[in-house]
Specification:
Layout: E1 6-7, H1 10-24, E2 32-36, E3 41-46, H2 47-56, E4 64-70, E5 73-76, H3 78-85, E6 92-94, H4 97-104, E7 119-124, E8 127-134, E9 139-140
Parallel strand pairs: 6-7
Antiparallel strand pairs: 1-2, 2-3, 3-4, 4-5, 7-8, 8-9
């Protein structure tokens, strides 16, 4: 299956920007171009890349995988969480070094919290690790298995 990139419709782009602002207090920079490839998979790139690639080339990967639309939320990929986290003002959870290590090994974290948002940005002293799914009692690891730390 050869999926193609497409620019988000104006309505979907507005929804994505609203979710980012409402969820994390983050306003996407104007030079970010959001693309969709497959069902609800979001990618970001810049205008110069889009103008060249979409018109002239057939490519496998363009830009950076940002996350996946999940109803009225966005499940941010690790790189998307790092980009958004730098400007986020809410729904950010700081982890201890021990908790961060458990998370990158693929374990869910038993951390009761009062944050209401479904997905939280997880931060440790070294930076943003990614996004975890929150149910108020536990943070579920969302990292893909191939990116999980096996040994130290």
């Amino acid at each position: 299956m050869n999926e193609r990139y497409s620019l988000l419709s104006k309505g979907k782009l507005k929804l994505v920007k609203k979710i980012l602002f409402d969820s994390y207090g983050f306003s996407a920079p104007e030079d970010w171009i959001f693309l969709e490839k497959g069902k609800d998979k979001l990618w970001i790139t810049t205008k110069s890349v889009v103008n060249t690639v979409l018109e002239n080339l057939r490519v496998e990967i363009m830009g950076l995988f940002f996350g996946t639309l999940d109803g009225n939320s966005i499940r941010l990929h690790a790189e998307g969480a790092q980009l958004v986290g730098a400007g986020a003002s809410k729904n950010v959870m700081s982890l201890s070094e021990e908790q961060a290590l458990m998370y990158i090994k693929g374990y869910d974290l038993d951390i009761p919290n009062s944050l209401e948002h479904t997905y939280l940005l997880l931060k440790c002293s070294e930076g943003f690790l990614g996004a975890g799914k929150n149910n108020g009692k536990k943070i579920f690891c969302q990292g893909p298995k191939e990116r999980r730390l096996k040994k130290i």
